[in-house]
Amino acid sequence: MSRPLPVTLAQAAPHPIGEGVTGFARDVEDLVARFPGSRLVVFPELHLHGTHARPDERDAELEASAEPLDGPRSKALAELAGDLKIWLVPGTVCERGTDGALYNTALALSPEGRIAAWYRKVFPWRPYEPYRPGDRFVVFDIPEAGRVGFAICYDVWFPEVTRHLAWMGAEVVVNPVMTTTSDRAQELVLVRANAIMNQVHVVSVNAAGPVGTGRSLVVDPEGRVRVEAGEAATVLTDVLDLDDVTRVRRYGTAGLNRVWAQFAETDAPLDLPLYRGRIDPSHWNTTGS
């Protein structure tokens, strides 16, 4: 049985902040017209927030562009997804929380024209980013395909994020990125490692050069790179079969390693002093129950 999820990944330079959602909407409409089979369309991290001429201007520009989740930007993006009948991840946005703080927040807009899920980056890139950390992991379901989780940029450096998403049932992790630095090479290794360790698809979408370092990629549940970009602006397309996750977890990575079937019911819980907690074998599954 196949559960296909056609994805379109836009490796693009950050959108000019002064153009707002209107200019972005034209880009998305053009993308869907070029690739009419698209079901899930993903843009890089902070794509709608442009570039900053000087680092000391960045925080002021982000403060000025921040909106609450129910603000006009989110409503316009949801309407766009509804008009095009797609699942849209417009990268991440600078959210003004009800507490007044700034959050780096990923949105999933549904074909019904609503916010289906939102996730605040749990691991902001400190000391460089001005955001307050999120406090929860987030997954959402795409009907007839499967479950999707969010990990924003620096989150992939922390294995707890993808592991928890997989435990919550995620079969594909969407990773919007805005890496402008020389550590993209390490990120590529981490994207593959997270896919292998958790037996999930990972799609990592970075900003294009000359602002970002590109190299967006799609990785399957056994860690194979299905498609990878260079540094220039481009579009990656692929069709993920989320049933591959079921296959790999049943038969093992390379037909061998079945990490989600590691524990027997008679195994004792394993204490985890680092987290002041433990792995309980009775909870070691991929359904979140």
From TrEMBL:
Keywords: Hydrolase
UniProt keyword annotation of Hydrolase present: yes
Family per similarity comment: Belongs to the carbon-nitrogen hydrolase superfamily. NIT1/NIT2 family.
Annotated PROSITE patterns: CN_HYDROLASE, UPF0012
Membrane-spanning segments: none
SUPFAM superfamilies in the record: Carbon-nitrogen hydrolase
UniProt-recorded name of the protein: CN hydrolase domain-containing protein
Lineage of the organism: Bacteria, Bacillati, Actinomycetota, Actinomycetes, Streptosporangiales
Claim: Hydrolase is one of the keywords in the record: yes
InterPro entries, A to Z: Aliph_Amidase/BUP (IPR050345), C-N_Hydrolase (IPR003010), C-N_Hydrolase_sf (IPR036526), UPF0012_CS (IPR001110)
Residue intervals of the CN hydrolase domain: 5-242
Pfam families in alphabetical order: CN_hydrolase
